[in-house]
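Same chain as my last thread, 286 residues:
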Amino acid sequence: MSWWGKVVGGAFGMMLGGPLGALLGAALGHKFDKGLSYFSELGRGSAKAGKADKVEIERIQSAFFTATFSVMGCVAKTDGHVTNDEIAVAQQVMDQMQLTSEQRQMARNLFNQGKQPNFPLEAVVTQFRNECQRRVNLRRMFLEVQLLAAYADGEMKIAERQLLIRIAELLGLSLREFQAIERIFEATYQFRQSSSQSGYGGQQGRQRRADVHSEAGIAAAYRLLDVSATASDDEVKRAYRRMMSRNHPDKLVSKGLPEEMMRLATEKTQEIKSAYEQIKRVRGIA
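reply #2:
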């Protein structure tokens, strides 16, 4: 049974306690009050180690889903009101995840909980970080999804940025790491815009001829790979491999990314590949 099946069946009430468990329970109409006792029992004894590992991943998937949509609601409400664009972004994420009607309703319930003035942001993000443990790439992706909410109306307001910096801090990410994630996020958006304007993403026969000559597109491609335009070919290749490894969907799912979010990670890797291919053509790399 998947993490979602167990959530619907109420089994996660025995595993996911704390503020995330409270949010999840409220979103589903369940009362989760048994904390992590079930997981603790599974972790005792080597004979149960395999089952405990599976439960751990499922628990992280549940925590990721719960924290993602509730914190997104909090970010959207930062400036005092939630815009139609911000609601549309939340719906877009749900669409990309291809959520079932039940999952979409839970996501909306979590989003609405995040908008409440008494939403326990610090407790929620802190618990999510603890659930992820050393899985830093999960924490990075979580922050990228929150950036989507902040940029929903085309710009990030000062209050939203300050909140995201605080969220990054709670996730154990430094200001420098936040700035790097923000820079790559902005580059991804600009690369996507440049590509769509040049016909990129249409029929393969076009071969993206226009974007080869787009200075803005090339600049965004380098920033997306987080590498300088003056870097050597070998440095560009290493940057590409590093970004692909960091964002590989299968790796992220194996670490606790909900399978429903695999499509988001897949789209990210496709954009990384596209940026690298564009740079290769401009440089004449075989």
